[in-house]
Design a protein that fits this description.
By secondary structure, the protein is of the alpha/beta class. 41% of the residues lie in helices and 12% in strands. The longest helix has 23 residues, at 20-42. It is globular. The chain binds zinc ion (ZN). Zinc ion binds at residues 56-57, 70-71, 74, 76, 100, 160.
Length: 295
């Protein structure tokens, strides 16, 4: 909030004319306005918080068809499933397919703006350089998480969109880090956190806080309705041994926002207004999470 000409003008006028009561009134007015502005600053819900945003994947390598998979170098496997197309969509490739990296970037950028408007600091973890080899991918993904570590982010939100050859697969999915007997890495199937084969360190603060953040995100996503249309949750909260959530030291949640191979999910994700609401839900979840956290 800002106060500009009127108080100063009246102040000057009342001093010149010797109108003491008006002078007092103007002084009190100014104190109230300054008080409001200080108060407003103090109540910015994310002031003092650092939120790392990982917009999953990156643009395709030169020469790689835009639609071959979700994220160019990323391994969102569609296993031959036909890609849905949205010709003319601002996020679509020339062939009409909306790539995962474009979706996650759009959602991530929107989230970044909301968080910063609420006084939070953000760390953008996506890297420009791309190494297409498996070792290069591992290095890339770990380097992204290291960016969040270096910035001492309080939480990391890792945004992805899913794909499957099975028409039955739809819904959003929340994944936190766990290690399994058979270590699984990005591209493999995550497991419900309570199932055998997924062994998170349940005593660690990272695990408990990641779970808490995942539940806050789940709560907000479950309420998200766009003209009565919604993306439902797929299963419970999952665990997986993935490079980014595994390397990050802070509470981290990977969110698959829906299946890009499911017509219902993808029709929603392709809409700007839905993505705006989705981002708002993430933002609210982050605010909910920090509301119970000491600074
Ligand atoms: Zn992905």
């Amino acid at each position: 909030m800002q106060y500009e000409i009127p108080p100063f003008f009246i102040f000057y006028w009342s001093v010149m004319r010797g109108h003491i009561p008006i002078l007092f009134a103007v002084l009190i007015w100014s104190f109230i306005l300054v008080g409001c502005s200080v108060h407003e600053n103090d109540t910015l819900p994310l002031k003092g918080r650092v939120i790392a945003i990982e917009a999953g994947h990156e643009p395709s390598l030169p020469g790689q068809p835009c639609h071959t998979n979700g994220g160019g170098v990323g391994t969102s496997s569609f296993n031959g499933a036909e890609r849905l197309t949205y010709p003319g969509n601002p996020l679509a490739c020339p062939n009409g397919a909306v790539p995962e990296h474009a979706l996650t970037e759009d959602i991530g950028r929107k989230l970044k703006r909301l968080i910063e408007t609420a006084g939070g600091k953000t760390v953008w973890t996506r890297l420009d350089e791309i190494e297409a080899t498996p070792e290069g991918r591992e290095r890339n993904l770990k380097a992204r998480a290291e960016k969040a570590n270096k910035a001492e982010a309080d939480v990391l939100i890792d945004i992805h969109a899913n794909g499957s050859s099975s028409p039955a697969d739809s819904g959003y999915l929340l994944i936190i880090h766990c290690t399994g007997v058979d270590s699984i890495h990005e591209g493999n199937t995550p497991l419900p956190i309570d199932s055998s084969g997924c062994y998170p360190d349940r005593t660690s603060e990272k695990f408990t806080k990641s779970l808490e953040l995942a539940r806050k995100i789940d709560y907000r996503l479950a309420q998200l309705s766009y003209n009565g249309r919604r993306i439902t949750k797929k299963g419970e909260i999952y665990g997986a041994d993935l490079w980014v959530p595994g390397t990050a030291r802070m509470p981290t949640v990977l969110v698959e926002v829906g299946f890009m191979t499911d017509r219902h999910d993808m029709d929603l994700l392709a809409e700007e207004e839905y993505r705006r609401m989705l981002t708002r839900a993430f933002y609210q979840a982050v605010v909910d999470y920090f509301a119970g956290e000491p600074k």
